[in-house]
Amino acid sequence: MRRLPEQQRIAVILSYHENMSNGEIAEVMDTTVSAVESLLKRGRQQLRELLRRHERDIRGAFTDC
Predict the structure, then answer these.
(1) Is the pLDDT of residue 55 over 90?
(2) Taking the complete model, does pTM exceed 0.85, yes or no?
């Protein structure tokens, strides 16, 4: 999570940890619902890629033994 840009991180945390709707997040972040949707989409994509890299690193560590 720390690797996400701040606005993406905030949107993801409010959505998944605080269970807030996109409308509520938009109010808190003083932005539009479409901007929140975009932040969440990019945040999920980036987290997915980070997890893929981490998985490859872990698999590589065990196959190099």
Answers:
(1) no
(2) no
